[in-house]
C-alpha cells in the first residue's frame, strides 16, 4: 500500500509524517505523534471516544483518514489547556465529577467544547442531544451535563 508524506497541523504545530495512506487520523495521532488523548473505542463512529476538532468542528478521528485532514487545523484534548491552566471545560469536569473511569473523557470534553461553541448548550435537553454521540459506560451523564451548563453559564 502506498506510503505518503503528510503534513498534519495538530494543536498549532505542523508535523511532516510518512504513513500508509489508509491510516486513520486516530492512528496517526496515537501511533505517529504519541498523542494518546483521543481514545479508540468502537473504531466505527459509534462511541465518540476518539472525538477531535477539525477546523473547530468535532469529528470522529476513527472515521477520518489522516490524508484528508492536510491543511486543516486539528485540535485534540492535549491542545486545550493553556500551559499550566486547564481549559475551563477540563476544570468543570473535575469540579463536577463528570467521569468515573475517564476513558471517554477526552472525547466528552472535546464534544462539550463544540457544544458551547456551536450554541447547543441552551438547556439540559439540548446538551444531552448534542452530546448523545459520546457514550459513557460508567453513566456519568448527569454530571457531564452539569459541567457543560456550568461553563455555558
Ligand atoms: Fe471513534 Fe468509537 S472509536 S467513534
TrEMBL record:
**Which PANTHER family is this protein grouped with?**
OXIDOREDUCTASE WITH IRON-SULFUR SUBUNIT, OXIDOREDUCTASE, IRON-SULPHUR BINDING SUBUNIT-RELATED-RELATED
Q: Which GO terms describe its molecular function?
A: 2 iron, 2 sulfur cluster binding; metal ion binding; oxidoreductase activity, acting on the aldehyde or oxo group of donors
What InterPro entries does the database record attribute to this sequence? 2Fe-2S-bd, 2Fe-2S-bd_dom_sf, 2Fe-2S_ferredoxin-like_sf, 2Fe-2S_ferredoxin-type, 2Fe2S_fd_BS, Aldehyde_Oxdr_Iron-Sulfur, Beta-grasp_dom_sf
The entry's protein name is Oxidoreductase
Entry keywords, A to Z = 2Fe-2S, Iron, Iron-sulfur, Metal-binding, Oxidoreductase
The record ties this protein, via Pfam families, to: Fer2, Fer2_2
Alphabetical list of PROSITE patterns matching this protein: 2FE2S_FER_1, 2FE2S_FER_2
Query: Is the keyword Metal-binding assigned to this protein?
Result: yes
**Where is each 2Fe-2S ferredoxin-type domain found?**
4-80
Q: Tell me the CDD domains matching this sequence.
A: fer2
- Indicate whether tRNA-binding appears among the record's keywords: no
Amino acid at each position: 500500500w502506498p506510503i505518503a508524506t503528510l503534513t498534519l497541523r495538530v494543536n498549532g504545530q505542523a508535523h511532516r509524517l510518512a504513513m500508509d495512506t489508509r491510516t486513520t487520523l486516530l492512528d496517526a495521532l496515537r501511533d505517529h505523534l504519541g498523542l494518546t488523548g483521543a481514545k479508540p473505542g468502537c473504531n466505527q463512529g459509534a462511541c465518540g471516544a476518539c472525538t477531535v476538532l477539525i477546523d473547530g468542528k468535532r469529528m470522529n478521528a476513527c472515521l477520518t483518514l489522516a490524508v484528508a485532514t492536510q491543511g486543516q487545523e486539528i485540535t485534540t484534548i492535549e491542545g486545550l489547556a493553556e500551559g499550566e491552566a486547564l481549559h475551563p471545560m477540563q476544570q468543570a469536569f473535575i469540579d463536577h465529577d463528570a467521569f468515573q473511569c475517564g476513558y471517554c473523557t477526552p472525547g466528552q470534553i472535546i464534544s462539550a467544547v463544540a457544544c458551547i461553541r456551536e450554541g447547543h448548550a441552551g438547556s439540559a435537553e439540548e446538551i444531552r442531544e448534542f452530546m448523545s454521540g459520546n457514550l459513557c459506560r460508567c453513566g456519568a451523564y448527569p454530571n457531564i451535563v452539569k459541567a457543560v451548563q456550568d461553563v455555558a453559564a
